[in-house]
Amino acid sequence: MKILGIESSCDETAAAVVENGVSILSSVVASQVDIHARYGGIVPEVASRQHLLSIIPIVQKAMGDANVVWDDIDAIAVTNGPGLAGSLLVGLSMAKTLSWAHNLPLVGVNHLEGHIYANWLTDDVPDFPLICLIVSGGHSDLILMRDHGDYVRLGRTRDDAAGEAFDKVARVLGVGYPGGPAIEKASLSSENSAAYPLPRAWLKGTYDFSFSGLKTAVLRLFDSIDAPKPSNDIAASFQEAVVDVLATKTVDVAQKYKVKRVIIAGGVAANKLLRSTVSERCPIPVSCPPLALCTDNAAMIAACGYFRFKAGQIAGLTLDVQPNLKLG
Ligand code: KG4
Ligand code: ZN
Asked: What's the confidence (pLDDT) of residue 40?
């Protein structure tokens, strides 16, 4: 069964064709990172306009790269939330139009659920029950997943998401944009990642996270040091602090719920220190998506759409965007 996936929730316009929820036939992503870099963050209006320019050629390329025609496609899966309303509308309108024109079933996919399903696009498909750490620009959640579509949220961030903290700290340190990869790169040039003992918010007795105190501590530390500022050492100390909390809570919750697998998902799952720290500390098998599938893409949406389609979860043409859509 072949699913065309479409994703446009933030600043990446993406389309992909995936077979049986696990094999990528094509995956095309048009990134707007260079456009938003000059503003130091995503400008929603600019993002929507750019999606409009990219969406048709990107879908055409995904179909061409997969070497398929419309008769080969079984359903269209599209992200309908959470995300930026104007951005989501472009992908959803495209998907609805194609669904109507080619008489294909339409499947709405939650963007976060899509991130989880990036873990199905590997040779090592996860078993249930599992714990998923979702860490992106907008979310930091610990989810117990008992089966396809069965989610229990055990922890969440009480303020900034992990990716948001990376982005804001990168701006303070002036190390580049987007913040996550920039902090990771700056940290590689540090010779002492323990140079600055930064605070960790443990929020004992919960699986919740909080990163805003850490972000403020970095800001104060940075302001208190005379130039030349040791940005690389501060970046590395910050990265250590975030990864320490994410890894500790993930390993604890996985042991408590005696799951068979731990998976990591979302843009921050591309962070190599996070991947290696969770894998080293966790006695339960850990999987992470391939690096290119951690950040926003449409292959993950098509993979998730396959399992939803198989479960009969087909949306009508009344499907609308839900910028605050929740998981489960
Ligand atoms: O999942 P994603 O592409 O978009 C959202 O759904 O938010 O995640 C983007 C976030 C950004 O905050 C970005 O800085 C962060 O993921 N990120 C990283 C890395 N690559 C992307 N954070 C830490 N290390 C990375 N290598
Ligand atoms: Zn995302």
From this structure: 87
Same domain, 234 and 175: yes
State pLDDT tens for residues 101-127. Answer: 999 999 999 999 999 999 999 999 999
Q: Are 301 and 109 in contact (CB under 8 A)?
A: yes
Is the CB–ligand 1 distance for residue 289 below 6 Å?
no
Let me know if residue 317 belongs to a domain.
no
In a domain, 230, yes or no: yes
Q: Which of 13, 111, 117, 136 to mutate to test the pocket of ligand 1 (most atoms within 8 A of CB)?
A: 136
pTM of this structure: 0.96
Whether residues 277 and 297 fall in one domain: no
Residue 191 lies in a domain: yes
Mean pLDDT of all residues in 154-177 = 96
Same domain, 65 and 134: no
214 alpha carbon – ligand 2 mean position (Å):
23
Instruction: State the number of CA atoms in the 13 A half-sphere of 177 facing the CB.
Output: 14
- Which tokens go with 109? 């996919």
Q: Are strands 12-19 and 23-31 parallel, antiparallel or unpaired?
A: antiparallel
Q: Which domain holds residue 108?
A: 2-118+293-310
